[in-house]
Design a protein that fits this description.
The chain is of the alpha+beta class. The protein has 4 domains: 5-115 and 249-328, 3-Layer(aba) Sandwich (Rossmann fold); 118-191, Methionyl-trna Synthetase, domain 2 (Beta Complex), CATH 2.170.220; 393-510, Isoleucyl-tRNA Synthetase, Domain 1 (Orthogonal Bundle), CATH 1.10.730; 582-684, Beta Barrel (OB fold (Dihydrolipoamide Acetyltransferase, E2P)), CATH 2.40.50. The termini are far apart.
Length: 685
């Protein structure tokens, strides 16, 4: 076997809040991959870091009376604890606010500038005269210029889904100070991304999964745009060389954080950094990311690397989102679960196994169905694997002094377990963990059928059967050894305890090689069943986390003296709108429609384009639900649409209605539905 040498990274968690189970999907996915590749004898380095820069970190630190450095240090401690709690085995977990990152960011920028890939342009932006800072779109709120909804963000209305420039808002105010912003001009620095179009168009087809490369075709078709990589002071970030009061936009230095974290590790451990990052490196570089940051990692990042003579990622692995009980994670339902809250109640390997059992190499969403989670972990890990050892080890320990038989009892079963190695290894290497788990659990079923058929508890009743009893239990324990070795990338802690019990090293390539005439140690319980009460307690604790977070937000808001937030933002009920008559209501024609097509609008942060079938006609509607719904999950769903709303021409196309939803917008939005028997086009009364 040829030894491979690779560097593996996970996307950088943002340093202004806690890790939740949506984050953990990616870190578990990458950790399993790394553990498997190491088990196969390959050289693997594995790094990550906290993403520290940007306006949100700066504002949150100010609201808490801290410096940004103090905030990111505190958040970093909790992030590292969460990673360790879930057995994520990083070689180095660092931060982007580091001397290494500043050096690399400056070097890359200067090379891009020298080669003509940087230009300046004067743009107009809203400015907070109290805080004396330019305001990103999300830090401006006001009245929607289209529908009149109040407290809408500066780029998109969460009520009517309109998109607009912040300058179009009516009665705008800064969410930082509450002041009315003014328009000011500022010179910004742009990266000339369009110059890399041909290179990127070819590159993404090699580096991305096919469906993700196809997704990028939408952006290529529209034409890549220059990228504004500068921000005005005050801003928490690295200063741009030779520019007054200008800072690198966080997405310039965030992916460079991979290099910085690895450099920090290399300097401490004496590893050759350049061998991995020079332009002609023969090492492998793999990024694990979520589909929400595909644009930055597949276009901006490789273009900046290409333009500055650095090596490119070998592959970019993209995953979907985590849903809970079939719906987007919800704070109010207690299904927006922080990693630390989970670890208070449940073992990390429960989630590692469940995620792995449903994880493939496609960017599809993964649902954490809590009842299924309990049943699957208890059935598979406890019922099929651990119990295989517990029901056999007692006989070996008590009757044979812990000594295994010197011969194989069932050569066919032994051969079957050994022969599964290539299939399982291929599934791990290709990140089709669900396939690996299915194969392993199929073997576990075979082993348990063997034990049931041989019935060692019956053999034990007659001392004349001792030789057979020892051989049968030895066979069962060797099946367990193979199973837990195959599962070791997913269940590293159980595997470590199992190795201690079996008194041997668990070598992946020798998983099917039986232990014969071998001394084992006394069996100790390896894993306990999930108690449903622990899951219920976790959900209740998550609801308490929401209450505490809302209290902290109120304190932060008071400290920062922003404009008064809406009642909904504070957790209260939104006041009722002015009273209307039945005649007013009857003017609205609500109809049942079915989603027949759904897709993202790449140039809009919140919009999905829906094609609706009303029974008597088909329509196109743009809905601001991108953060709450995966487009694929909407196909076939029946919704309610305001059918007599005047069509509105948007820059992406004509929107012919509005789908009805509840919630405050963003990720907290819930489409209204009707029972399936409701005919398409039927009127809602």
């Amino acid at each position: 076997m040829n030894q491979r040498s690779m560097l593996v990274t996970s996307a950088l968690p943002y340093a202004n809040g806690p890790i939740h189970l949506g984050h953990m999907l990616e870190h578990i996915q990458s950790d399993i991959f790394v553990r498997f590749e190491r088990a196969m004898g390959h050289e693997v380095y594995y790094v990550c870091a906290d993403d520290c820069h940007g306006t949100p970190v700066m504002i949150k630190a100010q609201s808490q009376g801290k410096t940004p450095e103090q905030l990111i240090e505190e958040v970093g401690v909790s992030h590292r604890a969460d990673m360790q709690g879930f057995l994520i085995n990083y070689d180095n977990y660092y931060r982007t606010h580091s001397p290494e990152n500043q050096a690399f960011s400056t070097e890359i920028y200067k090379k891009l500038r020298e080669r003509g890939f940087i230009f300046t342009k004067t743009i107009s932006q809203l400015y907070d005269p109290v805080k004396e800072m330019f305001l990103p779109d999300r830090f401006v709120k006001g009245t929607c210029p289209r529908c009149g909804a109040k407290d809408q963000y500066g780029d998109n209305c969460e009520v009517c889904s309109a998109t607009y420039d912040p300058t179009e808002l009516k009665d705008p105010y800064s969410t930082v100070s509450g002041a009315t912003p003014v328009l000011r001009e500022s010179e910004h620095y742009f990266f000339d991304l369009p110059k890399f179009t041909d290179f990127l168009h070819s590159y993404v087809k090699d580096v991305l999964p096919k469906e993700m490369a196809n997704k990028l075709e939408e952006w290529f078709a529209q034409g890549l745009k220059p990228w504004d990589l500068s921000r005005d002071a005050p801003y928490f970030g690295f200063p741009i060389p030779d520019a007054d009061n200008k800072f690198f936009y966080v997405w310039l230095d965030a992916p460079i954080g991979y290099m910085a974290s690895f450099k920090n590790f290399c300097d401490k451990k004496g590893v050759d950094f350049d061998a991995f990052w020079k332009e002609d490196s023969d090492k492998e570089l793999y990024h694990f990311i979520g589909k929400d940051i595909l644009y930055f990692h597949s276009l901006f990042w490789p273009a900046t690397l290409k333009g500055s003579d650095h090596r490119l990622p070998t592959k970019i692995f993209v995953h979907g989102y985590v849903t809970v009980n079939g719906a987007k994670m919800s704070k109010s339902k207690g299904t927006f679960i922080k990693a630390a809250t989970y670890l208070k109640h449940l073992k990390p390997e429960c989630l590692r196994y469940y995620f792995a059992s449903k994880m493939n190499n496609q960017a599809v969403d993964l649902d954490l169905a809590l009842d299924d989670f309990i049943a699957k972990v208890n059935s598979d890990i406890v019922g099929k694997v651990v119990n295989l050892a517990s029901r056999s080890a007692g006989f070996i320990n008590k009757r044979f002094g812990g000594k295994l038989s010197s011969k194989v009892y069932n050569p066919e079963l032994t051969a079957e377990f050994a022969a599964a190695l290539p299939e399982i290894a291929k599934a791990y290497d290709e990140r089709n963990y669900a396939d690996a788990v299915r194969t392993i659990m199929s073997l576990a079923d075979e082993a348990n059928r063997f034990v049931d058929a041989e019935a060692p508890w019956t053999l034990a009743k007659d001392p004349a059967n001792d030789e057979k009893l020892q051989a049968v239990c030895t066979q069962a324990l060797n099946c367990f050894k193979a199973l837990i070795t195959y599962l070791s990338p997913i269940l590293p802690e159980i595997a470590a305890h199992s190795a201690e019990f079996l008194n041997c090293e668990l070598k992946f390539n020798a998983a099917g090689t039986p232990l014969l005439d071998h001394q084992i140690n006394t069996f100790k319980p390896l894993f306990a069943r999930i108690d449903p009460k622990d899951v219920e307690a976790m959900v209740e604790d998550s609801k308490q986390d929401l209450k505490e977070a809302q209290g902290a937000q109120k304190s932060d808001a008071k400290a920062a003296q922003p404009a008064a937030p809406s009642a909904a933002a504070e957790g209260a009920y939104v006041p009722l709108a002015p009273e209307i008559t039945i005649d007013d209501f009857l003017k609205l024609d609500l109809r049942v429609a079915q989603v027949i097509k759904a897709e993202e609008v790449p140039e809009a942060r919140k919009l999905l384009r829906l094609e609706l079938d009303l029974g008597f006609e088909k329509r196109q509607v743009f809905a601001g639900i991108k953060k709450a719904y995966d487009p694929a999950s909407l196909i076939g769903r029946k919704v309610i649409v305001a059918a007599n709303l005047k069509a509105r021409q948007m820059k992406f196309g004509l929107s012919q209605g509005m789908v009805m939803a509840a919630g405050e917008g963003g990720s907290d939005i819930f489409l209204l539905s009707v029972d399936d028997p409701a005919p398409l086009g039927s009127k809602v009364h």
